[in-house]
Amino acid sequence: MLDTSTKSVAFHTLGCKLNFSETSTLSRMLEGEGFAKREFDDLADVYVINTCSVTENADKECRQLVRRIQRRAPESLVVITGCYAQLKPKEIAEIPGVDLVLGASEKFNLAAHLRELSKGDSTKISSCDIETVDRFHASWSMGDRTRTFLKVQDGCDYNCSFCTIPLARGKSRSDRIDNVVANAIALGRSGVKEIVLTGVNLGDFGINESENGKSAQRNENFFGLVQALDGTPGIERFRISSIEPNLLTNEIIDWVATSQSFMPHFHIPLQSGSDRILGLMRRRYRTELYAERVSRIKQRMPDACSGVDVIVGSPGETEADFMETVDFLTDLDISYLHVFTYSERAHTHALTIKPIVPISVRQERNKILRQLSYQKMQAFSRSFEGTTRPVLFEQAEKDQMMEGYTDNYIRVTTPYRAEWVNRIVEWTL
Questions:
Q1: Regions of the chain with pLDDT less than 50
Q2: 85, 177, 311, 416: most buried by Cβ count inside 10 Å?
Q3: CB count, 10 Å around CB of 299?
Q4: How far apart are CA 230 and CA 252, in angstroms?
Q5: Which pTM does this prediction carry?
Q6: What is the distance between the alpha carbons of residues 88 and 75, in angstroms, rounded to a whole number?
Q7: CA dihedral defined by 14, 243, 106, 57, rounded to 10 degrees?
Q8: Distance from first CA to last CA of the chain, Å, rounded?
């Protein structure tokens, strides 16, 4: 049995900003239970790895981290949670050195599990059928007080052919608007200046957890949340993280365009510029709608930054499909790309789609789009040279330098000045 009052814990996070916000919340919970927090490379009594399973690399990295811990601290407890833990708990339990595997329903009961855990016991798996997961746990990242990632939605009801997230995180569910506003106000009081709203399917916000045995139902929506948060005391900036193009409505775009709090910055997943491939991916839009959304943003906010997620090498993607994507993105008025190479994931519909694109071809296509992303970002940044924009400088110092971001997400680096930390400074680019 673990005496939590005298023990230390270290965390490592794989994957998305959502995972980082949840790790930060778990850390605060354990510190409240008496644990002393340690860096992951330091000696600790407990190591917690919050995993991703979007790509095969995340699975491999999890295994490598466990081996590192075993070499450094063989008597320490090792806990694996997150998406990989929900999808493949038995596989993880077989990794030498793992003591506890927590699925989606038990992640936030970590402290209770640790109190019952001893090194040398058989690996404990605490998981459940993902269909039964219906609770929402608010989470937010802390550390750099300048910016926090605030989770307001979890899970996804979509069934995109390449994605395991619905299997790992369950059905779409959300916090309530009044709770989100209260959390935002508290974060503002703590010194946070910028909040990034995050979720698995952020635009689907509004489905609240079941009460009194009744099915969860939609009571609110994302536009209502944006309206309620606008002007939150202490918070100078809000950003909307990745949002599906079919859920990014004109009313949301128009509201951001006139808001003083919401920044002119959108990240909108495309995944493919080929309508045929979008159909195979089971995406809920086509390129025409996507182009309309980007055009609307630029019409209302000419200075806005627009980022795009793209997957290359998905099953069935021909050279012609890929070139259609390249041409579509080249003509699109966007600022940068996040390029992902397709990775086969168990229990997804994509595994039934043929032909399979060779790994070497996937990698080559990735390089082409990353080069296009570089060109887009350079052109976007150059278009603002000589203009003055507000920059929020961050606390972190590296090599006597500090960095911050403009309202439209252009990174600025300058020699460190303590008086600029966590302040908005008018900056000539």
A1: 213
A2: 85
A3: 11
A4: 12
A5: 0.87
A6: 24
A7: -30
A8: 57
Which amino acid makes up residue 149? Answer: F
SS3 of residue 238 by DSSP: strand
- Residue burial 206-231, b: 16+ Cβ < 10 Å; e: rest: bbbbeeeeeebeeebbbbebbeebbe
What pLDDT digit, counting tens, does each position of 328-360 carry?
A: 999 999 999 999 999 998 889 999 999 999 999
Cα torsion angle, 216, 222, 223, 224, sign: positive
Phi-psi region of 404 (alpha: psi -120 to 50; beta: other; left: phi over 0): beta
Domain 139-382 fold is pyruvate-formate lyase- activating enzyme (3.80.30)
3-state secondary structure 105-159: CCHHHHHHHHHCCCCCCCCEEECCCHHHCCCCCCEECCCCCCEEEEECEECCCCC
Cα 110 to chain center, whole Å?
Answer: 21
Helix (H) or strand (E) holding 165: helix 165-169
- What pLDDT does residue 393 have? 94
What is the dihedral sign for C-alpha 226, 228, 229, 231?
A: positive
Shortest CA distance to 342 belongs to which of 307, 369, 366? 366
Residue in 52, 191, 50, 56 with CA at minimum distance from that of residue 110: 50
